[in-house]
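Before a colleague's protein record goes any further, I have to sign it off. What it holds is a sequence and that sequence's fold in token form. My question to you is simply how this chain folds and whether the tokens agree. Thanks in advance; the entry in question is below:
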Amino acid sequence: MRLVFAGTPEFAVATLRALYESQHEIVAVYTQPDRPSGRGQKPRPSAVKQAALALNLRLIQVEDFKSEEAIEELRSLGAEAMIVVAYGLLLAQRVLDLFPAACWNLHASLLPRWRGAAPIARAIEAGDLETGVAVMKMEKGLDTGPVLIQAIVPIGSTDNATVLQAKLAERGAALMLEALNRIERLHVEPMMLERALTQQPITGATYASKLNKAEGQLDFSQPAAVLERRIRAFDPVPGCFCWVYAKNSSLMLKCWRAKVYQEGSIGLQAGRVGMVVGLGVDGPIIACGQDLLELIEVQQPGGRRLAASRWAQQHGLTHGDYFGDASGPAKPHDHEPT
């Protein structure tokens, strides 16, 4: 089949490469315009742009499809179908109608669970034991179209967003090829293709809202298990952070890995929320609203990620120091017994 591919982040690259190596023909690759990134805010090409250029594919970058010129250029490609993977742009019905074999989206969840912008992170944050990938026929709604095929992917207990994204990208690329084989065979008989689709149930739909930096601030009044999941879910972006209050000083700290202990399971009892109640092999152990959280990997602003045990040793962290928000602990450095 003649295909147009639309995608932007690293998650989409595996599918682009799989399509390139298949019997299908990619007539053009659409990706978002270069966006400012990094400290210098220099325009940075998307992962899909870099991959498309490396494969010598025709590359098109448009802000949207509101202009007649953009629509006409897309129509002139003569593609039978459009494959969309995390493109970052809602497509109007006039775009969807351009393709005789329709537009198909690879989505990183088991629909209708986690529609929206951040399904991978939200699945980890919520404590889901499994997620998956789905190939959906696109319609005007946000991830509401009927599903052609989907596959389950377990979420490991230590998976962060980077690890889970890689698993889903690989499984999704294979699933899209399987879906295209069905589409190519069935689209000549529209009723047969429609019968192969499964409408999403009305119940059970959840929305995976876009992540923001403010959500990354750790609130130690929450259960340790909630914080540990959020740390994994927000790695690499936007990252989780807190403030450390020790020796009459404070600093901001990013937290990249942690583990949970039930209160009393390691001979330690929870003190006031945010208090360091012990120093474990991996790092400081902090009292939370429920249970205890041991930090494993941390990072100071401008520094590199390092073992939390090493960081704690460098800063002389002791029992009774505090982790909290920018307002500081209610009673800083009150070394009360546990």
User: Anything to note?
Assistant: The radius of gyration is 24 Å. The mean pLDDT is 93.
